[in-house]
Amino acid sequence: MKKILTGVLAALLLVVFLSSCQDDDADKSPLYGYWTRSITDSSGVTFYASIEFTEDMEMFWKPIGENTGHTSSNAKFEFVDNNSIQLIEDSDCGDDDNLYIFQINNSVLTIMVNKDDCTLRAPMISGIWTKSEKDYL
What we know:
Blueprint: H1 2-20, E1 33-40, E2 46-53, E3 58-64, E4 73-81, E5 84-88, E6 98-105, E7 108-116, H2 122-125, E8 127-132
């Protein structure tokens, strides 16, 4: 009986050990990381931009290159569900009411504006982004 209890205890310890060693990235959102895309603004100026979503729930947006006429912006974000986010504490738009839907397919991120009271932000965020390993920020 003592051998059986020892075996059960050893098995339980092994299960606890293995479950604690699970890949921490399993719950990591594929949204996290750097993304880039080409943007044509309302004046007809085309430029590249980078966006980063961090695990600290921050978003950093930056035009790439000089003389784009645009400046960097940052905000915090919250997941509303698995495929939508809301931007909060935006450096340019404050807490304007907004909701963005996103879809990720391989290394392509599509962000669509569902609603956004900040009309300047929506065209800069929504669009098709490509995963980037480079930190343009």
